[in-house]
Amino acid sequence: MQKDKYLQIFNNCVLSKLIFKHVKSINNVISKNSSARFRWSDLIKLPYVMAGNFYLNELKQYYADHSIYPHLDETFRAIFKSKNLEALKYLVSLVKPISRTKYITANFDSILCSAAEYGSLEIVKYICTEFEKKRLNYYQALIKAPFSGDIEIVKYLNEQLDACDQSRICRDYDYETGVVFDSAAKMGRIDMIELLTESRSDDRENCNMYYGAIQGGHLHVVQYLIDIGEPTSLFPNMDYGTLFDYSIYCNQLEIAKLLYHNNMRQSSRTAIDFAASHGNIECLKWLHENTTVSASVKAMDNAAYNNNLEVLKWLQQHRTEGCSQSVLDVVCTKGYTDVTRWLHENQPIVYQCSQPIYWAITNGHLELSKWLLENRTERPTTSAIDFAAPSTDTWIALNG
To answer: Which domain of life does the UniProt lineage start with (predicted)?
Structure first.
């Protein structure tokens, strides 16, 4: 803002009071991030904050007194997100003279990856041009490009990759081969998948587009993959199981139904446990009525950990797995009084919980501590009483 306009506004007492009264909400609208607020004393110590908020003079002053290396990746990322071309050109002028040796002091590949993910086509082209002698790994950047949402960035980096001899690099990174297809699927971009297929068809052998599409919640991409006969992985994901399991893990019931109706029903995990963690009773009902997927005590535990009494009641009525012995300790740590009462009344195994009252006391849950004293037989330990001593209300409650 120009100084004369600034003074004209803030010398007006009515406008000045109104602005400062609502400065927090104004900032939230502008930044779309309620946590992105800094005191001036903090701002001038953080180059990435200056760069992302167009404080170029302050950024130059900072780098006049400091090394460029701390926060370098964060500063570039902030510039790409804010599309601050002036700051970008300045920072590039500082970094460009750095040699690329085995003792890398500036990760040029990481810079290009951030540009591909957060920047614009103009920014990506600028980085590629300015750092062309740094032997940039275009393949790694291409993996990130779909997250920009700009197919032109994908096209450009794909062309850069084709124009240079990086086929050896791609083979050296076999574990990454095909990930660009997964990125496109995660973004729900069939057009990107088709574009990449034209020039990178060999990479599709190692991709897992189904998992990407499921994670992104893109039903239309899963349907597209089924329609074109995209093969599925021979091995379930080590953490989340089969495609069907993963759809439940990601709370994507409609995708789960689509897979089920296309005979992709294999399950190697306890899918009901996943559904319970989301509090999704509709999904629990569908799984219970239409499939034979398994469950464990983690289903009820997950519901309890999330303070979901309705899911606990549904599981009690329709399932037989029950809960774990230790669930009450965790619930009391969180201070969930209603869930604690329900578990105490409906799950006898929780009588074996070691010290739920200890966890309630030491986490400051006074009302829950009182209820536990009145309804359970175990007494608080000496350490719990010592912990409660500074609080008069808790001390009185524990000592009658």
So the answer is: Eukaryota
